Amino acid sequence: MCIRDSINAEYGERKSVMAHSHGAGHSHEHAHTPISPKMEPLIKCQVEQPHEITDHMLFGVPKKGRLFEKVNALLEACGLDYNRPNRVDIAHCKSLPITIVFLPAADIATYVGEGNVDLGITGEDIVAESEADVNVVMRLGFGKCKLAVQAPLADEIKDPSLLLGKRVVTSFPNVARNYFAQLQAELGNEAAAEACQIKFVSGSVEAACGLGLADAIVDLVETGTTMKAAGLEIVSSIMQTQSVLISNKHSPHTQLIEKLRKRIDGYITATQYVMVNYNIPRANLNQGLSITPGKKAPTIMPLEDENWVAVQALCKKKEAQTILDELEDVGATDILTFSIQSSRMAGASE
Questions:
Q1: Closest CA to 53 of 8, 108, 117, 9
Q2: The pLDDT of residue 186 is above 90
Q3: What is the value of pTM for the model shown?
């Protein structure tokens, strides 16, 4: 049974249970199938929802791992308030007809591609590995790393073609196989490419070379700490990857997907920018504007003293302290910065 059918079946059971428990004259006349303790919190969660569960858009998100905390913060910032009972991997939003489905990150692209869920958040590396046919709605700017071919430092392998015909261990067998197949095609070394032994392991890939199981690995590199600790180095980079919002190409929830995209876009902008306000003499205004051109254009307001103006502009959060220093140097005063909770802007995440 697919995820959507499971939710619909469970929702039908919940409605049946509620009808029996609240129907007049049926308090003890009928014997009903008991509801398992695991179902009870989910039923209680669903009773509180204002929308028909069967009409919900299904949104797959990582249930744990390196992306979980960032995705959870993203959902909260976008107003997707939900109550997730203990040990239950389905939660229904209170304000929008969306059901959050908590899934292994490695499975999300497949579920989205096959239409089991409408929308998902996972890594570009997972999308590539799954070979799922999905829409990449937007890049989210977190979970950035690279997928790379790595080999023991002591072997001094600098050219990935030297690994053709060797043993390669990875959690990304499709990506690795395609990479080495393309490499052999470029070199015209068909026999070596066919002999390249790609072996799948689900975790601790970096230990494979040290244990004598592999001549090289294909794995994610974020800071490089784990790679260096295992005595490995990057031979070549296969792809840069980050978290992405993906959708099923045939989802009926296109308007809701677009609404959520705008909310996420607004949140990403809010995390990247601050609003800076300052007063500056009119004579120095052009200098101030060259420092704070804003995202589109700054807002300039006259003050009671006609020789002064107030300026308001967006600036990159990481540049804020430098901008404050430069504004002070050109005569600006009363310089303030304000954080942004959310936003709606044209080209917000550019």
A1: 8
A2: no
A3: 0.77
